[in-house]
Design a protein that fits this description.
The protein is mainly beta and 324 residues long. The chain is 4% helix and 42% strand. It has a five-stranded mixed β-sheet with strand order 5-6-7-8-12, with no helix packed on it.
């Protein structure tokens, strides 16, 4: 079975969630004596297309003791929330949402006949500051701000055990290709980083302005993954279709990356990059052939300073279009 997405549990590293190409969502216990999964979705409640991302999120209702739920998104346009029972024998579908053509911004120029069709979801990111707020990237280039608190009449005829709700609160100027990654800033919560197969990376102000505050085209083809630094404001990493890892530090240079590394020995697409949440100067990349590399960055691009903090404040409080 082809695995298309994985995510470690935030506090239990032996628990891993995964999504399959056939739309199934599973949870494994790597500490168990055998490699079989703990729980998996039923055929009735599975996605109908490949799972593009799974992510553990904090239950918005949990207060003193953090409890976690699982969210899965897919090319079938559905966003599903799951609860892993305490006995870890069941994966219960709590509720779900759907992204429809009618949610797309006018700039995408969808036909009226596409209004009620599902739009494939390619990426998701939840805010660390407001647990119910998240952003979606879509296969048609759209980027959407959403809320788990969104209410309204449920949508029917999706063949699930729960009704699906609308979830979009706003959208921004779309990319011209599939959105491969979206990340809400972990140091602000007001900024969104995206990258796309159109070859550009952008920074948006969430719920404030449709136009990007910053955009860059490295000129290296498809961009596959984008991630914010967890320590230095407005520093982020991108991976490319020709095998490169790019490090941008906007407080030092807004026109070009401060570092460019070859991250694939065979110059294959680098599908993913992520920072280490414990050792903030480390990040990992993985390419199309499964080659994983660990990178150590210098203090200059991982330690915050006054200039970087001031620039973050400027980006977070300003609506403007700055394209490089």
């Amino acid at each position: 079975m082809c695995v298309t997405s994985v995510a470690f549990h935030p506090t239990e590293p032996n628990i891993v969630a995964g999504g399959y190409f056939n739309g199934e969502v599973v949870v494994w216990n790597l500490g168990a004596d055998n490699s079989e999964y703990l729980v998996s979705t039923s055929e009735e409640n599975s996605h109908r297309e490949p799972v593009t991302q799974v992510q553990w999120i904090k239950d918005p209702k949990s207060r003193i003791i953090a409890k976690y739920e699982l969210v899965s998104v897919s090319g079938d346009g559905k966003i599903l929330r799951w609860h892993v029972a305490h006995n870890r024998q069941t994966l219960k579908l709590l509720n779900g949402y759907v992204l429809l053509g009618k949610n797309a911004p006018a700039a995408l120029k969808l036909k009226e006949t596409e209004n009620d069709r599902e739009v494939g979801v390619s990426a998701v990111s939840f805010s660390l500051f407001e647990p119910s707020v998240f952003c979606l990237g879509s296969e048609n280039g759209g980027i959407f701000s959403c809320s788990l608190d969104r209410t309204g009449l449920p949508l029917a005829d999706f063949n699930l055990s729960c009704e699906l709700l609308r979830l979009v609160t706003s959208s921004v100027e779309p990319h011209q290709g599939t959105v491969s990654s979206v990340k809400i800033c972990p140091l602000s919560g007001k900024l969104l980083l995206s990258c796309s197969f159109d070859g550009t990376a952008r920074i948006y102000s969430i719920n404030q302005d449709e136009l990007p505050l910053f955009a860059v085209d490295p000129g290296l083809g498809f961009l596959y993954s984008a991630v914010w630094s967890l320590s230095k404001p407005l520093t982020f990493a991108l991976t490319t279709g020709d095998g490169h890892l790019l490090i941008y530090d906007l407080s030092a240079n807004q026109a070009a990356p401060v570092h460019k590394f070859s991250a694939s020995p065979s110059s294959r697409p680098v599908h993913h990059v992520t920072f280490n949440p414990a050792q903030l100067n480390l990040l990992a990349t993985g390419d199309q052939l499964g080659v994983v590399q660990i990178w150590q960055l210098s203090d200059a691009v991982t330690r915050s300073d006054v200039k970087a903090a001031q620039l973050l404040e400027s980006f977070s409080s300003t609506s403007r279009n700055q394209e490089v």
